[in-house]
Structures are given as structure tokens and as C-alpha cells.
Design goal:
The structure holds two protein chains of two kinds. Chain A has a single domain (88-332), classed as MetI-like fold (Orthogonal Bundle), CATH 1.10.3720.10. Helices cover 77% and strands 0% of the residues of chain A. By secondary structure, chain A is mainly alpha-helical. In chain A, helix 12 (287-297) packs antiparallel against helix 13 (300-328). In chain B, helix 4 (112-148) crosses helix 10, helix 6 crosses helix 7 (183-209) and helix 11 (273-280) packs antiparallel against helix 12. Chain B is elongated, with a radius of gyration of 24 Å. Classes of the chains: A mainly alpha, B mainly alpha. Chain A binds chain B through residues 14-15, 18-19, 22, 26, 29-30, 125-126, 135, 138-139, 141-144, 146-148, 150-151, 153-154, 157-158, 223, 226-227, 230, 269-270, 272-273, 276-277, 280, 291-292, 295-296, 298, 303, 307, 310-311, 314-315, and chain B through 3, 53, 158-159, 161-162, 165-170, 173-174, 177-178, 250, 254, 257-258, 261-264, 274, 277, 281, 284-285, 288, 291-292, 294-295, 298-299, 302-303, 306-307, 310, 323.
């Protein structure tokens, strides 16, 4: 098992180096001089320019610059934002809980609806329920979620007035950030109505971000169930007279869940891409919106640092899924 | 049980069809090459048409292509013509609607239906261009990696891993930030992000084909590397690539619309659907139609293509067919 783990770990090292090269190269291929960019329109006298160039190490050869950059990354130095002057890692860590909270709710939403829907669709294969569910799943899978979010806002915030339009919590409430999770912090604060406010702000973004994973999980569960239901051991279980519920719940479901778990792990990248759009629509102060804003503000250190952090995160999650998969399914690790 | 039986008899049908095709292929005296090809096409259509969704998707897609091609002729108005006396007119069936503007007008008085029709050209164009670039690049890279293996393969696949490590939309956004916002750059960025999927698929297919007897016999007969790669092996790797191309087509349209929505894709006043949505955002609570129709157009297009993709996969991949 350890060998399997280390072989996987070894494989991601070159990928991670590649990510840093991309992020490092990104700023270098941008048109314009980074120091002149700092100076703005006022310009800069040559002495100051040379001094700054030395300070940032831009006068050194490219590979030494890259080496220093990676050395900085390893020490947690991801650069400093041009617009806020705060360090990128600090900003990331402040904003990340908002995205994480939203993503957790979205994936729970997707699982709670997607898995039962997939199971029943498989059990009632070809029925009206199956066709409707799979039609809905394909529609969800094809959904432009930025439009979906706007539609939900029109209906639930505009026409019905049930949910707030944007943000994480009503402005009426203020309390210190403990965990960064608004639902937990609002409970901890003990303020009346704060938790309800946090939850009502979460509903629409959760649905929007969860739609595509929901569709993928429902489809995947259905096909995994169908495959397993045709296996010999399920037929044996049926033949020896086990109750249908036991056959499905114990024999089929457990085995069908293996590919589904992998699918869930692979949704992390999808969730990150979805977070960019969802957070933009709902003004959700997470890292997706942070990246979009930084790109349009041309705050390149943030974009550079954010790229490495996000890609690194996705990679780590994928590694975890790979390893978990090896734990569940020994056939994988001895290949 | 009855369902089971039905499924089984269907499976048998498929088997007989396959056997007929095989015998036909084995008796070249009876069937000429073109007839054999026709037979294959007919068989393919038989499987494809089995899925009602796939046929509906295909019909919708063909209609979209027709609308896109004829947009300048059939659109009731020019896409950028502003009717200053008809700002934010609702669709003709609602109160205050005007039959001249069937789906209403936007904030500067442009006819939404006409803009959507012209937008279809952009979306389909984006799909075609992105898939062509990604497919060509992916096939070349995948062929080289799968055929030569060794360090070439390792290097190529690690680079692909790096591209895949970034969430696709984020990478596309950053690429567009480097290249500058606009439709062309958005297409290049999306193609680059989608390309590794094709490279991986091609490589996997090449690796499973390269040791087959027909490839070895071609090599023994003296075929060169290029001939082996493109003439002998490639045609046998196409099925999964066709399915992936269809699915990428819809992804490309979605991603381009998302970039347009974020202000990084096609720029106003281009009637691209995502850009139209971005312009409509501030009116969502006042004029629902400005927001609803462009998104609906994206959804219908993407859904139709995905339906076709599902049908293609079922028809082309015999292993998944009956699962």
C-alpha cells in the first residue's frame, strides 16, 4: 500500500513543477514590464527602476528567477497583491472557506438527490421515471449554469421574494470569523436569525453549483447500478431468495458505489470551474470571484498565486481520491 | 422479467445484424467496397435511430445549422439595428408586446430573435473551430506519444497532465487574459484546454491497436512510420474520438458562452449568446425575456449536441451498447 501511495506521489511531482512553470511563465509572457506596471502612468526615473529591478530580482537570469520563485513558494510566499497589498496566501486562506462551504453544500445536494435518483432509475429501467430522470440529468449536464443562476434569481428572489439575491449573510448581522463557515459561525455567534440568514443565502448558489455534479452523479449511479445488477453474484443473491431490498442495498449498491466515488472525486475540478461562475453571479466572496476580479483588475501576482494554489489543491484531491480508490479496490493497487 | 426477455431478444437482433455485416465483409465477391460501406452506415444508423433522444437531438441540431446558415435571410431585423422607440419591448404574447419583435427587444432596442439567429452562427462556428483545432492537435500528439512511447511519450503525457490539473474554465480565463479578450483568443484558449482529452484518447487507442496483427503485417510489408500511424492505425481509433469530438463541441459552446458572460469572450455588440447574457444581467428583475432567451438558446443547442453524442456513443461502442 505504501509503495502504491509513493508511486502516485512520485507521479504528481513533475506535474506540480509544471504548474509552477506555467504560473511563473504566465507573468513573463505578459506584454509590458512588471516594474513599469507597478509605477503606473507616472513613469519612473532610471535609478529607481534599476533599484527596483534588483529588489525584485528581475536583473538575474531567468532560471535563477524561477528557482527563487519556487523557493519562495515552498516557504509559503505566493506574492503580494497589487491592489490590496496583502499577501496572496493570506487572501486565499481568508476567502477559501467561503468557496469550500459552498462546494460542500453543493456536493451534498448532488449526492442526496443524485444517488437515489440513479438507483431508482436503474431499478425501473425503461420506465417513465427512468426516462424523465435521465432526461432531466442530461438537461442538467448541458446547463449553462450562469444562466441557470440568473433564472433562479428571477423566480425565487424577484417574483417570489423567498431568497436573497447575493452575498453570504444579511448585512444586519456581524460577528467574528471563527471557522470561516458562515453556517457554523452564525450559530456560534448566538445571534437570533443569523443562521437562517446564512442558510437562505446558501440555497440558490448551492443549487446552481450542484446542478452539473448532480446530473453526472445520477447518470453514473444509474449505469454503475445497471452493470452490477447484471452480475452473477446479484443473480445468485436473488436466486437464493434474498429480499429484493437486501439484494439491492447490500450486494448491488456497495459495488456500484466504487465508480461513483471516483466520479465524486473528479467533480472537484468541475466544482472549481463552477465556483468561478456561481460566485460571480451571486457576489459570493470566495476564490472563484477573487480570481475573476483579479484577472479583470490585472492583479497578476494574485492570478499567478491563485493558479498555483487552485491547481495544487485540485491535484491533491485527485491524489487522495486515487489513494482512497486503491484502499477500496485492491485490484487497482496491484496492477 | 418481460423486460429482461425483451432486452435479450434485442441483443440477439443486434448479434444477427453484426453477423450479417461480418459475413458480408468476409465475402468481398458478393459485395463491393462501396456496398460494404453502405451496409456499415445502415447498421450504424440502425443503432443510432434506436435512441429516440439521439434522433430528436440530430433534428434540432440540423435545424440550428439551417437557421445559422440562413440567418441574414430569415432574421426579421438586422442584429445590431437599434429601435429607439421600442426599448425593452416584451415578447409579442405578453402585455405591451409587439408582433414586429417576436421575442421582444433588449435595452437598446435590438430585436432579440434576430440576435439569437445570428448568435447561432457564432456558437456553431466556435464549436467547429475549437473542435477542429483540439482534434487535430490531440490526434497528432496522441499518435506520436502512443506510437513512439519511451521518453517522448512521458514528456507529452506529463505536459497533458499539467494542462488537465487546472480547472478548464480558469485556465481558459487566464489564457484569454494573456492573449487579450475576444472571440478568436477565447477559441484558441478553449481548444488548448480541451486538447489533452483527445491526446489521451488517441494515445490509449493507438497503444491498444499497435500490436494487432494487421499493424504488424503492414510493418513487415514495409510500411513507413507515417503510413503506419496515419493510414493503418488511425482509422481504427476513430470511434472514441468521434464521440469525444461531439461532447467537446458542446463543451466549447458552453465555455465560450461562459467566457463571453464573464466579459472575456466575444465583445459587445457581437450577438454571441453568452455576451448577450452579460449585457442583460442588470435587467434581470425588470425584463425577464432579455435574460431567458439567450440562455435557452445555449441550453437547447448544447442539449441537442449532447443527445447526439450519447446516441453516437451507444451506436459506435458495442461494449457500452447493452449495459
Amino acid at each position: 500500500m505504501l509503495r502504491f501511495f509513493f508511486s502516485k506521489l512520485f507521479l504528481i511531482v513533475p506535474t506540480f513543477i509544471g504548474i509552477t512553470v506555467v504560473a511563473f511563465g504566465f507573468v513573463r509572457v505578459l506584454p509590458g514590464d512588471p516594474i513599469l506596471l507597478l509605477a503606473g502612468e507616472r513613469g519612473m526615473d532610471p535609478d529607481r527602476y534599476a533599484a527596483l529591478q534588483q529588489q525584485f530580482g528581475y536583473d538575474q537570469p531567468m532560471f535563477i528567477q524561477y528557482f527563487n520563485y519556487v523557493l519562495g513558494l515552498l516557504q509559503g510566499d505566493f506574492g503580494t497583491s497589487i491592489s490590496t497589498k496583502r499577501d496572496v496566501l493570506g487572501e486565499f486562506l481568508t476567502l477559501f472557506p467561503a468557496t469550500l462551504e459552498l462546494a460542500i453544500f453543493a456536493i451534498i445536494f448532488a449526492l442526496v438527490i443524485g444517488i437515489p435518483a440513479g438507483i431508482f432509475a436503474a431499478l425501473k429501467r425503461g420506465s417513465v421515471f427512468d426516462q424523465v430522470t435521465m432526461g432531466a440529468a442530461l438537461t442538467g449536464y448541458s446547463m449553462p449554469i450562469f444562466w441557470w443562476g440568473l433564472l433562479l434569481i428571477i423566480l425565487f428572489s424577484g417574483v417570489l421574494g423567498w431568497t436573497p439575491v447575493s452575498g453570504r449573510i444579511s448585512l444586519l448581522y456581524f460577528f467574528p470569523q471563527v471557522t470561516g463557515f458562515m453556517t457554523i459561525d452564525s450559530l456560534l455567534s448566538g445571534q437570533k436569525g443569523a443562521f437562517q440568514s446564512a442558510v437562505s443565502h446558501l440555497i440558490l448558489p448551492t443549487i446552481v453549483l450542484g446542478t452539473i455534479p448532480l446530473a453526472v452523479i445520477a447518470r453514473q449511479t444509474r449505469s454503475a447500478m445497471l452493470e452490477v445488477l447484471g452480475e452473477d453474484y446479484v443473480r445468485t443473491a436473488r436466486a437464493k431468495g434474498l429480499a429484493p431490498r437486501r439484494v439491492v442495498g447490500l450486494h448491488a449498491l456497495r459495488n456500484a458505489m466504487i465508480p461513483v466515488i471516483t466520479t465524486i472525486g473528479l467533480q472537484v475540478g468541475v466544482l472549481m470551474a463552477g465556483a468561478i461562475l456561481t460566485e460571480t453571479i451571486f457576489s459570493w466572496p470566495g476564490i472563484g470571484k477573487w480570481m475573476v476580479d483579479s484577472i479583470s483588475r490585472r492583479d497578476y501576482p494574485v492570478v499567478q498565486g491563485g493558479l498555483v494554489l487552485i491547481a495544487g489543491l485540485v491535484m491533491l484531491v485527485n491524489l487522495t481520491v486515487d489513494v482512497l480508490y486503491g484502499l477500496i479496490n485492491p485490484r487497482i493497487r496491484h496492477r | 422479467m418481460a423486460e429482461r426477455l425483451k432486452a435479450d431478444s434485442k441483443g440477439q437482433d443486434a448479434q444477427t445484424a453484426a453477423t450479417t455485416a461480418e459475413t458480408a465483409a468476409l465475402n468481398p465477391a458478393k459485395l463491393s467496397a462501396s456496398q460494404a460501406r453502405m451496409q456499415m452506415l445502415r447498421e450504424f444508423w440502425h443503432y443510432f435511430a434506436e435512441s429516440r433522444g439521439a434522433v430528436i437531438g440530430l433534428v434540432v441540431f440540423v435545424l440550428l445549422v439551417v437557421v445559422a446558415l440562413l440567418a441574414p435571410v430569415i432574421a426579421p431585423h438586422a442584429p445590431n439595428q437599434q429601435y429607439r422607440d421600442a426599448l425593452l419591448t416584451p415578447p409579442f404574447w405578453s402585455e405591451g408586446g409587439n408582433a414586429a419583435f417576436i421575442l421582444g427587444t433588449d435595452a437598446v432596442g435590438r430585436d432579440i430573435l434576430s440576435r439569437l439567429m445570428h448568435g447561432a452562427r457564432f456558437s456553431l462556428f466556435i464549436g467547429v473551430v475549437v473542435v477542429s483545432i483540439a482534434l487535430t492537435g490531440g490526434i497528432l500528439i496522441g499518435l506520436i506519444a502512443g506510437y513512439f512511447r519511451g521518453w517522448v511519450d512521458s514528456v507529452i503525457m506529463r505536459v497533458m497532465d499539467i494542462i488537465l490539473a487546472f480547472p478548464s474554465l480558469l485556465l481558459a480565463l487566464v489564457l484569454v487574459a494573456i492573449l487579450g479578450p475576444g472571440l478568436t483568443n477565447a477559441m484558441i484558449a478553449i481548444a488548448l484546454v480541451l486538447q489533452p482529452h483527445f491526446a489521451r484518447l488517441t494515445r490509449a487507442a493507438v497503444m491498444s491497436e499497435i500490436n494487432r496483427e494487421y499493424v504488424i503485417s503492414a510493418r513487415v510489408a514495409g510500411a513507413g512510420h507515417l503510413r503506419l500511424m496515419f493510414v493503418t492505425i488511425l482509422p481504427n481509433c476513430l470511434a472514441p474520438l468521434i464521440v469525444q469530438a461531439t461532447l467537446s463541441f458542446s463543451t466549447a459552446i458552453l465555455d465560450a458562452a461562459a467566457l463571453g458572460f464573464l466579459g472575456m469572450g466575444a465583445q459587445p455588440p457581437t450577438p454571441e449568446w453568452g455576451t448577450m447574457l452579460a449585457e442583460a444581467r442588470e435587467f434581470i428583475l425588470r425584463a425577464w425575456w432579455v435574460v431567458t432567451f439567450p440562455g435557452l438558446a445555449i441550453l437547447i443547442t448544447v442539449l441537442a449536441i449532447n443527445l447526439v453524442g450519447d446516441g453516437l456513443r451507444d451506436a459506435l461502442d458495442p461494449k457500452l451498447k447493452r449495459s
